[in-house]
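> tool_call: predict_assembly(chains=two)
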Amino acid sequence: MRFLSSAVLAAVIVAGAVGTAVADPGVATHEPVVDKVSPAIVSIACKSPPRKNMGEMGWFGTGTVISEDGAILTSTTVVPTDVKPDSIEVSFARGKKIKAEFVCASAELEIAMLRLPKGKYPWVPMGDSKTLKLGHVVYTFGNCQNVMENDDQVAFAQGEVSGFYKISDVFEDKAWYEWCTYKGDVVETTAPLNPGVDGGPLIDCHGRLVGIMSLSYNETRWLGVAVPQHILADRIGHWLKGEAVKDAPKVTPKKPDPLPKDPDVEEDEDAPYLGVSFEADEPVIASVAKGSPAAKAKLEAGDRIVKIDGKDMKSPAGVAKAIKSHKPGDVIELTVQHGEKETTTLKIKLGYQPM
Amino acid sequence: MNRFHAFLAACALAFPAVARADDPDTSWQKVQEAFASAIETGHKSTVGLEVKADFRTPPPPMNLEPGAASDPNYTKRPSTPTSGVVIDKEGDILTSFFNVDGKVKKITVIFPDGKSVEGKLLGVDESKDLALIKVDPKAHDLSPIEWAEEQPAVGAFVMALGRSPEPTSGTATRGIVSAVDRVDQMYNSIWEQSIQFDAKTNYGNSGGPVIDLHGRLVGTVAHVRLQSPWGQNSGISFCTPGWKIKEVLADLKAGKRLGKPKLPFLGVGPKEGAGTVIIGSISPGTAAEKAGLLPGDLVLQIDEIKVKDWADFTNYIKKKKPGDTVTVKVTRGEETLDIQAVLGERPNN
């Protein structure tokens, strides 16, 4: 994540207790998972070129070593796609700062890969995020509030899998961290997520990586989410083999083809046509078709159809029925209410249903 | 082996002195299977609710001065569905009163398979933060939740289930029972005995079930409040216990609207920073003003109760009813006075 935002984030992210049991031999604790995973966690700091009237930007966060030869997986909220490659420094807890090489990044998946100098490193194996269920025990590890830089240790938190949903348009205007670019399925966890843990792993009860923590939380849930491992697996596989697969260029989605016509329904070419549509249960116009009789009569979205031919209109179905009782070319008497104003009565000549 | 035994077995592996500390695969996997299995059972009965209504802005929580602007975190509603729980084959669905507080226009019940059915509001109980919605039992297969026979003990595992933001996948957060029989009109939307628990809940959880390790109904999640007066809520929530729900279920099915009881009100505020109980303010038009209490009065006693701190004073008044008379012994200057006051009604409840 970016340095400047950490104070703001600290204030808004839900904090929680770490559920570690008493470390008594013979009593199950979370310690075995901590012992297995912590040595493979690194803190990351790097720089990117200036953006949006800001100076050169510093970034920090967490990464996980995912292979014995030192491949590190992290997030693009830690190592942005336009990172200055020679600025990347990583360190293990109680370790020296090491220069790491930039391998590849994907804004679409919100992940980046780095590589440590040649050597043998502790590493975390991949789990299978498809097997996760609500209630499963999971952990987060990382450089929470820069704890690895300041206090030489990896921060650890335990929680459960608490939800599966999509980061989608529902949340789009409420995303709290602007650098989150991933849209799609996420795994939500009650394990506390704090600034600096982004890019860190979501770990299952076997000590395996099942996701990468994202700061893409939202106002409805206020809980940490991870991009699940099964969505990342393919890309990670390519990168580990040295194939620098990048995001496909963005294509603007084509408008969906109109639904095929049901052959059993006879199209009535001679259906009368007004050219308005409704969305709710009220006879309030949602949209007016261009060039339609309604458009010519200057009807507008938001107008309420009060009466047709003197009959009170209470629903869109009632309006449709009243129109269908006519033939194209008939003139109907339509009473509309525009905003809070008084009603006006218009005479409109119905057209033919466009084909 | 049923789930309960499975969990006992899991406990035996996970908690007592079995030398498994080096093998996380054994211990936590069994525990999480117990959680997941309870959640799966409870989720069959958990539904999403989309309520279209002219919502009423709830009055400010009781810890604020009467007439204060309501806390925005308290009045907030999610843009996604809220939650409810199916309790019988007749189509009865429980939810939080907050979810239907206002002029309800349309209720859509979303089942776990994503199918939507229109629901109708039957009855409400404001002081239990409870509402009953009915769907046509023929409109969809109903999986009623099983009721927990007893109230869980403090420390028991519970899980809060919800159907927000995505009704088809749902959410589940796990915690423990932190306290039972909480009666707190200051910070809680439930004014009668409620269960306090520490599973994380969010806006879309309101009205959803709280379940035990068997997936049975312990209570329904109250109106969620993420902020406390002193800042971030530390992660506690409240639910209406099953036994309280059963008390009024027949009334709710009969379509009754049960309101909140009137609370007593004296109309005095404390003097900030005083080590003793000194009246700092008198609200105009209240019992305190009519009785002649004045700012600066040092409170010694209310009826037979010696007043040592402000809580002694307010806790005694809370137990009274509007219309009751109390005698407040105060020191004013050199004098000691016994002042009788007829308690009024707390405004804005």
